[in-house]
Structure formats: C-alpha cells, structure tokens
Amino acid sequence: MLIKKPDGVKSSEITPERHYINRREFIRTASLAGIGLTTASFLPEALVGQDRWPRGKKGPYDTDEEVNSFKEITTYNNFYEFGTDKGDPAEYSGRFKPKPWTVRIDGEVKRAATFNLEDLLKPHKLEDRIYRMRCVEGWSMVIPWRGFPLADLIKRVEPTSRAKFVAFETVYRPEEMPGQKSDVLGWPYVEGLRLDEALNPLTILSVGLYGKELPNQNGAPLRLVVPWKYGFKGIKSIVKIRFVEKQPPTTWNLSAPDEYGFYSNVNPDVDHPRWSQKSERRIGEFFKRKTLPFNGYADQVAHLYAGMDLRKYF
Ligand code: MTE
User: Fold this and answer.
1) pLDDT digits (tens, 9 = 90+) for 70-87
2) Which end of the chain is more exposed for a tag (fewer CB within 10 A), N or C?
3) Domains in the chain, start-ordered, CATH in brackets?
4) Which residue CA neighbors atom 8 of ligand 1 most closely?
5) pTM of the prediction?
6) Ligand 1 environment, Cβ below 6 A
7) How many A from CA of 231 to the centre of ligand 1?
8) Whose CA is nearest to atom 14 of ligand 1?
9) What is the DSSP string of 224-292?
10) Do 52 and 69 contact (CB within 8 A), yes or no?
C-alpha cells in the first residue's frame, strides 16, 4: 500500500512473497515428492496450523473455497495504525482497548445517535459469512467473518433523501496506536461507500472472525467488510458513520489519488500504476491464481456500475 517508500520498508512488502506454506500445500508437495507422510505428527509445529473453519452447510453468500487458517488471517495483514509491516498489527495492537466502545451515527439521517456497541448490536442477528478477500497489493485470503448486513443498520437510522454516500472513520488514539504518531498516512483513517453499495446485501459490519470476537489486529471491535472491493475499503475500529450528500474523502485516495480511487472495485483489467492486478497469491498457496472481476462477486454487484467507465472510476 505504500506510496512513498519510507526507510526500512522492504520492497517485498509491495510485491508480497509467501511467508510460509500451510499444511495442505505442505502435504501435497510432500506426497508429490514421494515423502509419503502419513500423519500430521511428522509436521513441524508451525505447519500443523491452527483449527480450520469447518467445511459444511453454506449460506447463500458463502464461497466454498478453503478458508485460511486463523493464524494466517490474524498475523499477516495491514493496519497502519500499528505499523506498516504485515506482522506489525498482530505484534503491536496488544495495548489497544476495544471495550468500552461507542459509535456516532449522524449526518443525513432521521435517527442520529451515539450508540454504545452493545446497543448498536442488540437488534441485529449475527451470522458467519465466508468471503474471498483481495488486497490491492496482490494477495488474497478466504475469511469466515461474523457480522450483520450494514443495510440493516442503515434502515434502522433512516437516511434522508439527501443521503447519497456513507462515510466511515477509525478511532484516533495515538497512545494506543503507535502508527498514528507517524505521518505515513493522514489520521484518522477514513473511508466511504456510495449508499447503494452500502445497502448491498454483501456489505457487512463485522464484529468477529472464526467464530470469535475480532482480534485487535483485524479491526476490533467493529469494522467494514466489502468483499468485491480491494481490502483497504474495509475500514477498521470504526467510531463514526456519517450519511452525506457528496462523495467523502478516503485515506488512500488522499494519499495517492493516481493509485487508489474511490471505488476500488477488484478489477483484473485495470492495473495499479505500479503492478498488474491480473493475478493474485492466495495466502497459503504456492501458485498464483487469476483475479476475478469484482473478486468473483460480479453477479451480485456488477449492476451497481452499469454504464460507468471503470477505468475512470477505478
Ligand atoms: N483500516 C484502518 N483503520 N487502517 C488501515 O491501515 N488497512 C486496510 C484495511 N483497513 C487499514 C484498514 C487494508 S490495506 C487491508 S488489506 C485490510 O484492512 C486488511 O486487514 P484484514 O486482513 O484484517 O481485513
């Protein structure tokens, strides 16, 4: 995600390399190589992996692709408030306090309010959704989120007819988020969606993953998940949701407007100015796979952009 490459940031962070091979790849590779492993107990601890999300009955929004391990999902990600390396969020988010938490909802809505998180969640039924997630840097994962449709919350607060966009803001707490003491990005982190994108049933507010509460590094206690867009749209640790008439500013677009647009729909046909978006490396796999338009969710969302030039509105 880096624009200006500060000292100490390796170029391997920009073209990410696979940092470890997971168990399924290891077994496949080992048996191809004729090693003939018969039991996982022969595997080194790091390769045995954590619990896998069970395969089984799937909901209408779930992908049936294999889910990444809890360890992969929670130790390799971006959360610049805790540093710019992929391991920093897990390493430096321990002091962050996601409880108690309040969320301010205002702007063009009839029921503006400050909710504590428990009250915000009370009327909503949490569900698990297995989504493909694609980072703009070229890696992807499959994550079992726990959350609820943002549309349900939007209906509850009743936007006025002037509301056309939804703007989100992350908490600003430099004492708990050491990355906010650097100027690598402007703080607080902000993001936005068009109202119809926010209302799409795929868009969720998440409070957990792998059936557990969200770890700090993944955006505790409340974060956005929009699976057809690049991962940076998934703003973490949200404290404000504002309904507005005009397209709101977004952190990465402010930082590098030529590289990161407002829409940021996953699009293999529109390259990032510094790298191709045609393929991606699924964390845990050795070979690259083809990136799909709208990250494979075109049937559900392509209509939102009918008639728009997606090269211009990238
Ligand atoms: N939200 C905040 N507040 N700060 C960030 O740096 N990084 C984004 C997004 N949300 C980020 C953020 C990026 S670039 C990605 S790829 C996802 O979080 C990655 O986190 P995840 O793997 O937990 O989804």
Assistant:
1) 999 999 999 999 999 999
2) C
3) 11-305 (3.90.420.10)
4) 232
5) 0.87
6) 1, 77-81, 133, 135, 170, 189, 218-219, 231-232, 234-237
7) 6
8) 232
9) EE-TTBBGGGS--SEEEEEEESSPPP-HHHHH-TTT--SS-B--TTS-BTTB--SEEEETT-SS-EEPP
10) yes
